[in-house]
Specification:
The termini are far apart. This protein has 467 residues and is of the alpha/beta class. Strands 3-2-1-4-5-6-7 form a seven-stranded mixed beta sheet, with helices on both faces. Helix 14 packs across helix 17 and helix 15 packs antiparallel against helix 16. The radius of gyration is 25 Å and the shape is globular. The protein folds into three domains: 169 residues, 3-Layer(aba) Sandwich (Rossmann fold); 250 residues, N-(1-d-carboxylethyl)-l-norvaline Dehydrogenase, domain 2, CATH 1.10.1040.10; 34 residues, 6-Phosphogluconate Dehydrogenase, domain 3 (Single alpha-helices involved in coiled-coils or other helix-helix interfaces, Up-down Bundle), CATH 1.20.5. Helix 2 links the parallel strand 2 and strand 3. 54% of the residues lie in helices and 8% in strands.
Length: 467
């Protein structure tokens, strides 16, 4: 019988920090990695608790308690390879846990394959970054409930806590955990884009200094915008480059990269027929930021508005604050609506209130408003859209004028706000009892005989438009 409670395959920073988190809570951890330098770095933390690295995979597996609980923290591109290398040496009933950023469709496939072969498998999202892994992340595990029971005490111990409540819960079967993590990241993309637009509006519109921006975001974080991303934005604006003394943010290349989870969210939303305007705009915002060389040349060719914001400076700060808050609500609302659709289509039986609960701490999109989201969906589990419920309906209505004013000002100044504009377009479309899709359907019938329905009678109709 082995002596280590948990096995960790992949001893990079995330894997090592999670292992250190486990041992700090009394769980022994055996680590395995092909890279000697990672094993050596891992073993330097042996004084923190019962952990040890192994260079030989059979020796590693032999050191684990039965049934084995093995966590994979490897790049998503090599998860199948890692599973294939371990599988011949596993016993029936052993548990494999993929804690990487895997695509939920791949997790579905792996879950079916491994469970058919007699092994347990969990695909789990984890959010919080490197520091969260060490101090307490939000964890989103999916798979068989029996599989989750094998790891639940350990996950509950290492997860972030909000009022003593661990930010982890059983999400649902098969790929449900990685699906929810994917949507978490889609919402995250949306919020980050919106914050960047608020920054751009204030920087270009009223020439706000980094110190002013730091103060504004720190103040905003004390009220309804209270969230991890707003908090760290204030800290970013306050940081100076040690070499030049200038605000560090001003000398960072304006090119945002991505790992794909936001794109997956947009693609899946299209597959399920769920509108995610804000998230889509955020993905496209990152894509166009990558066209740096083209943008430099285009700036030489095209002119545009020259002036900044001409109104009251202090009032504009407050209007941008309101526009940011309402647009952030839209990003959450779109992500939740997408999870509700996936819950039905994929038989995940997602509990939105419970997901909001575990997102209150540890994860990147943690925010004060998530407690209200939890309460809303506890009371109304089938609520079709977050915006329909108090207090969010009142929040949108109270800030709608400022929201529109900010976007109008952005257009006048030539400052791109794709996320905010997409959020408003989503809201205006959602609140419209009638949209111009009747004309679109008439066009489809004209050129393709696709038929249409009428407002005044039942049935399906076709017109010979050119007769």
């Amino acid at each position: 019988m082995g002596e280590y409670a948990i096995g960790m395959v992949g001893l990079g920073v995330m894997g090592a920090n999670l292992a250190r988190n486990f041992v700090s809570k009394g769980f022994s951890v055996a680590g395995y990695d092909l890279a000697a330098d990672k094993r050596e770095a891992f073993d330097r933390h042996a004084g923190e608790g019962d952990l040890k690295s192994f260079a030989d995979v059979q020796e590693f597996l032999g050191a684990l308690e039965q049934p084995r609980r093995i966590i994979l923290l490897v790049p998503s591109s090599v998860v199948d390879e890692a599973i294939a290398s371990l599988k011949p040496m596993l016993n029936k009933g052993d548990l494999l846990i993929d804690l990487g950023n895997s695509f939920f469709g791949d997790t579905e496939r792996r879950a079916v394959s491994l469970e058919d072969a007699g092994y347990y498998f969990i695909g789990s999202g984890v959010s919080g970054g490197e520091k969260g892994a060490l101090r307490g992340p939000s964890i989103m595990p999916g798979g068989h409930r029996e599989a989750y029971a094998l790891i639940a005490p350990a996950f509950e111990a290492i997860a972030a806590k909000v009022d003593g409540d661990p930010c982890v819960t059983y999400i649902g079967p098969r790929g449900a955990g990685h699906y929810v993590k994917m949507v978490h990241n889609g919402i995250e993309y949306g919020i980050m884009q919106l914050i960047a637009e608020a920054y751009d509006l204030l920087k270009r519109g009223v020439d706000a200094s980094a110190d002013e921006l730091a103060a504004a975001f720190r103040t905003w974080n004390q009220a309804e915008l209270n969230s991890y991303l707003v908090q760290i934005t204030g800290e970013i604006f306050a940081r100076r480059d040690p070499d030049t003394g200038t605000p560090l943010v001003d000398i960072i290349l304006d090119e945002a990269q991505q790992k794909g989870t936001g794109k997956w969210t947009s693609q899946n939303a299209l597959d399920l027929g769920v509108p995610t305007h804000t998230i889509n705009a955020a993905v496209e915002g990152r894509i166009i930021s990558g066209l740096k060389a083209e943008r430099i040349e285009a700036a030489k060719v095209f002119g545009g508005p020259k002036g900044g914001y001409s109104g009251d400076r202090g009032e504009f700060f407050e209007q941008v604050r309101d526009a940011l808050y309402v647009s952030m609500l839209i990003s959450y609302a779109q992500g939740i609506a997408l999870m509700q659709a996936a819950s039905k289509d994929y038989d995940y039986d997602l509990d939105i209130a419970d997901i909001a609960r575990i997102w209150r701490g540890g994860c990147i999109i943690r925010a004060g408003l998530l407690e209200d989201v939890r309460k809303v969906y506890t009371a109304q589990p089938d609520l079709p859209n977050l915006l329909l419920a108090s207090p969010f309906k009142e929040a949108v209505e109270a800030r709608q004028a400022d929201w529109r004013a900010v976007i109008q000002a952005a257009v006048g100044m030539g400052v791109p706000v794709p996320g905010m504009a997409a959020s408003l377009a989503y809201f205006d479309a959602y609140r419209s009892a009638r949209l111009p899709a009747n004309l679109t359907q008439a066009q489809r019938d004209f050129f393709g005989s696709h038929t249409y329905r009428r407002l005044d009678r039942d049935g399906v109709f076709h017109t010979e438009w050119e007769a």
